[in-house]
């Protein structure tokens, strides 16, 4: 490609397997897998008799469902996990790991943890790679200059089968932050501030590059917190150009090339070129002066609802736009807050320090410095510290951080997602208010009726010891001259020595990749091309939904994600809105889908923007589809949700002309039918009058109209994938020899001996 390119352009270009003019097939270097979004993907592989193309580029763990209680008595997930559905997801993952011969860190392994923590920790995530996972916070890995994004379960299946993804180039967006951060301000505050500025749809359709002197000064941990939340700003991915701080971090990581080896030298040479060329074009540019960033907290139910800790709860009266005003009123009601209350006056009940945003060693050190020698406030019922991985836990214990937290009254837990979304037993009770270092404050996110305030680890620690949202800068003993929390507090070198030592028991040998021929028992072109019923014309009554920023937690809350099937989720659709609180599915007659004729609607029109934001859960389109909705018309959609609908034979239609949306909503309110004609790309009234034409990507239309499964289509191009892989081996050899799958060198794949160390024999092998 001629002309100056952005970092994103460069990584994208280097992974193009082929472009047929309609879409781009991109090679995926690294695939992380967890128990929630993978069962249906493995089931799909099985049904089509497909194998995993690159087990050596795939790394799996359990994180969302796992209890964070002591693992002293841990033997197997079947005996350890009490909750039946959670247990089934974890055992299903383990069965799939065995069957498809993948690398897995289970609960008896110190390397287990949140996928987005363990990938970087192991050096599985490397600069310039493409990284995917069935999880929206895959954006975290962009901190290394990787192109990393969340995908739905159908795409997980596609990557498992083909090691590629069909995609379209996103727009380039840049958020530049310059200058030194003020004392007490961390990278978490910077990203909350940035999302407050751009909104949760601000990055839709974009990959954000974070740059500027502030960003360059950050440690890798601080960078990861920022890229992690790029998805909360609507972007598919966040990226930061790799530099010496990145290379230092990677030294000694088990899966990174060995330092000083020719591979390391070649890799660093390549990595150094991964920066935006001067003059490269950005579609959107945002500038932030670090002086404007204060310790920041959220007040509402969307990550854009943020304010400086010195500020007040907003007053809906100050907003003219009726939709905005209603949104604020609704959020305040849910959060139990009065307008104009000073943020510092808000009392809390619980503290959660953890999640893939802020559970790394540096976060724990920073929080520990605040609580050291202090006690949890009397009104705080519970405070949990949940390290992001077993290795972080160990490291923190070696530094005595666990003692500091325990003495202050915080619980020191085992690694996992925990109360970030409460798929395990760690949840808020209704109306409980939590100071949380996580990334989402959606309604019901941490437990039905629970109230979340997002903030940095030091702010959460301060809230714990004061009992209310507190300004870290006013805390007794706060030392404004101390190194800011986002600077490494110990020498980088000593961290690496520790990493290497901690990992020495584990097998980190390199492996040769299997050749293309060995990989596909069923052959390249043999894949099924029959996916779902063709979508051509859809006619019926439209259901109107007058909401903005409908997140996928609202479309289907976490308690329904514990299924290993795609079907039967219709009952869960819009659970919190559709059913009366504290009842067993007693319908709320006010909710549109409980009213006639809308309960039979196949089409939904949403009048507010950004439908489907948040999590990558494909359960959201599955629930809509199971309810009967095949087409959604809205001003705009979040990227991952948009993709996921197509993969299920559904049609999302973005229409940015609000008057057209209102016209369709009016027809809906009057129980009129409309006709969505995909073939001619038209929406018509029941009398055949064209309301509007609409755009749809040609490739997606082709798949929908013909009911095609794109895995089968991609497999027809296997020769191109094999060609890409051999070029990759030559140019980026460090991407091959980094798997745990040394067994590949010894011959064909055998279904046995996945490295799952048993409890009490950490580092040992478990023969299944
Ligand atoms: C379960 C998973 C699909 C989800 C995500 O995609 O983000 C979860 O990690 C979350 O944070 O809501
Ligand atoms: S956001 Fe929360 S639930 Fe999702 S991966 Fe991160 S820690 Fe887990």
Explain this structure.
With about 775 residues, this protein is an alpha/beta fold. It is built from 26 helices and 26 strands. Strands 23-22-21-20-24-25-26 form a 7-stranded mixed β-sheet. A 5-stranded parallel β-sheet has the order 5-4-3-6-7, sandwiched between helices. Strand 15, helix 13 and strand 16 form a beta-alpha-beta unit. It starts with 6 loop residues before the first helix and ends in a 37-residue tail after the last helix.
How many runs of DSSP E, i.e. beta strands? 26
Structural class: alpha/beta
Relative helix content: 25-40%
* Radius of gyration using CA atoms only: 25 Å
Give the DSSP E fraction (strand runs of 2 or more residues). Answer: 5-15%
Task: List the topology elements.
Layout: H1 7-13, E1 16-19, E2 24-27, E3 30-33, H2 39-47, E4 58-61, H3 77-80, H4 84-100, E5 103-105, H5 115-122, E6 130-133, E7 147-150, H6 153-162, E8 164-167, E9 171-178, H7 187-198, E10 206-211, H8 213-217, H9 220-228, E11 237-239, H10 244-250, H11 262-272, E12 284-289, E13 296-298, E14 306-308, H12 322-335, E15 350-353, H13 361-371, E16 382-385, H14 390-398, H15 401-408, E17 411-412, E18 433-436, E19 451-454, H16 457-466, H17 492-503, H18 516-519, E20 537-545, H19 552-555, H20 575-578, E21 603-606, H21 619-627, E22 631-634, H22 639-646, E23 651-654, H23 658-669, E24 673-677, E25 682-685, E26 690-693, H24 698-706, H25 710-715, H26 718-731
Parallel strand pairs: 3-4, 3-6, 4-5, 6-7, 9-10, 9-12, 10-11, 15-16, 15-18, 16-17, 18-19, 20-21, 21-22, 22-23
Antiparallel strand pairs: 1-2, 2-8, 13-14, 20-24, 24-25, 25-26
Helix pairs in contact: 2-6, 7-9, 13-15, 13-16
């Amino acid at each position: 490609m001629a002309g100056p390119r952005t970092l994103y352009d460069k990584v994208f270009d280097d992974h193009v397997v082929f472009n047929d003019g309609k879409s781009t097939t991109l090679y995926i270097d690294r695939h992380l897998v967890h128990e929630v979004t993978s069962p249906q993907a493995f089931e799909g592989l099985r049904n089509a008799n497909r194998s995993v193309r690159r087990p050596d580029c795939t790394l799996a763990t359990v994180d969302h469902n796992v209890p964070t209680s002591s693992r002293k008595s841990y033997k197997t997930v079947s005996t350890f996990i009490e909750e039946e559905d959670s247990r089934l997801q974890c055992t299903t993952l383990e069965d799939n790991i065995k069957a498809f011969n993948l690398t897995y860190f289970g609960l008896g392994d110190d390397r287990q943890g949140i996928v987005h923590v363990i990938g970087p920790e192991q050096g599985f995530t490397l600069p310039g790679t493409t990284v995917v996972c069935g999880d929206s916070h895959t954006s975290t890995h962009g901190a290394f200059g990787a192109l990393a994004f969340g995908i739905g379960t159908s795409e997980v299946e596609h990557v498992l089968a083909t090691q590629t993804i069909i995609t379209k180039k996103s727009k380039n967006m840049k958020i530049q932050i310059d200058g030194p951060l003020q004392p007490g301000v961390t990278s978490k505050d910077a990203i909350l501030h940035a999302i407050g500025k751009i909104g949760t749809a601000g990055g839709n359709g974009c990959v954000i590059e974070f740059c500027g002197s502030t960003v360059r000064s950050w440690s890798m941990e601080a960078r990861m917190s920022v890229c992690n939340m790029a998805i909360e700003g609507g972007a598919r991915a966040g990226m930061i150009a790799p530099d010496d701080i990145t290379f230092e971090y990677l030294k000694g990581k088990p899966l990174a090339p060995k330092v000083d080896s020719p591979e390391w030298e070649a890799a660093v040479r390549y990595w150094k070129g991964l920066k935006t060329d001067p003059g490269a074009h950005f579609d959107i540019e945002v500038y932030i002066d670090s002086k404007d960033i204060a310790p920041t907290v959220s007040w509402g139910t969307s990550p854009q609802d943020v304010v400086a800790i010195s500020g007040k709860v907003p007053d809906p009266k100050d907003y003219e736009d009726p939709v905005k005003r209603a949104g604020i009123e609704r959020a305040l009601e849910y959060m139990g807050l009065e307008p104009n209350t000073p943020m510092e006056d808000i009392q809390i009940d619980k503290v959660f320090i953890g999640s893939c945003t802020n559970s790394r060693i540096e976060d724990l050190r920073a929080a520990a410095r605040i609580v050291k020698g202090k006690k949890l406030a009397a009104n705080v019922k519970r405070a949990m510290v949940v390290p992001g991985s077993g290795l972080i836990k160990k490291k923190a214990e070696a530094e005595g951080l666990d003692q500091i937290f325990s003495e202050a009254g915080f619980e020191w837990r085992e690694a996992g997602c925990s109360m970030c979304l409460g798929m395990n037993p760690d949840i808020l009770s209704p109306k409980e208010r939590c100071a949380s270092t996580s990334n989402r404050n959606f309604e019901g996110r941490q437990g039905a009726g629970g109230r979340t305030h997002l903030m940095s680890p030091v702010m959460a620690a301060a809230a714990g010891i004061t009992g209310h949202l507190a300004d870290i800068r006013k805390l007794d003993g706060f030392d404004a001259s101390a190194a800011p929390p986002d600077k490494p507090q110990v020498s980088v070198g000593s961290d690496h020595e520790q990493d290497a030592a901690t990992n020495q028991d584990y097998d980190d040998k390199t492996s040769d990749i299997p050749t293309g021929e060995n990989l596909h028992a069923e052959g390249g072109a043999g894949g099924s091309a029959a996916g779902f019923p063709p979508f051509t014309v859809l006619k019926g009554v439209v259901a109107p939904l007058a909401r903005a920023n409908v997140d996928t937690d609202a479309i289907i809350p976490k308690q329904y994600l514990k299924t290993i099937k795609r079907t039967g989720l219709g009952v869960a659709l819009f659970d919190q809105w559709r059913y009366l609180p504290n009842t067993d599915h007693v319908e709320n007659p006010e909710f549109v889908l409980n009213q006639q004729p809308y309960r039979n609607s196949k089409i939904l029109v949403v009048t507010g923007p950004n439908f489907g934001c948040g999590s990558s859960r494909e359960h959201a389109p599955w629930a809509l589809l199971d309810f009967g909705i095949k087409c959604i018309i809205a001003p705009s959609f979040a990227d991952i949700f948009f993709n996921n609908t197509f993969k299920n034979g559904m049609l999302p239609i973005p229409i940015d002309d609000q008057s057209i949306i209102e016209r369709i909503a009016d027809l809906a309110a009057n129980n009129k039918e409309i006709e969505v004609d995909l073939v001619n790309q038209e929406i018509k009234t029941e009398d055949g009058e064209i309301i509007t034409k609409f755009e749809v990507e040609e490739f997606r239309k082709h798949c929908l109209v013909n009911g095609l499964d794109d895995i089968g289509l991609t497999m027809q191009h296997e020769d191109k994938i094999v060609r890409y892989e051999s070029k990759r081996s030559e140019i980026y050899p460090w991407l091959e020899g980094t798997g745990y799958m040394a067994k590949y060198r010894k011959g064909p794949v055998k279904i046995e001996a996945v490295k799952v160390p048993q409890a009490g024999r950490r580092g040992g092998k478990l023969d299944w």
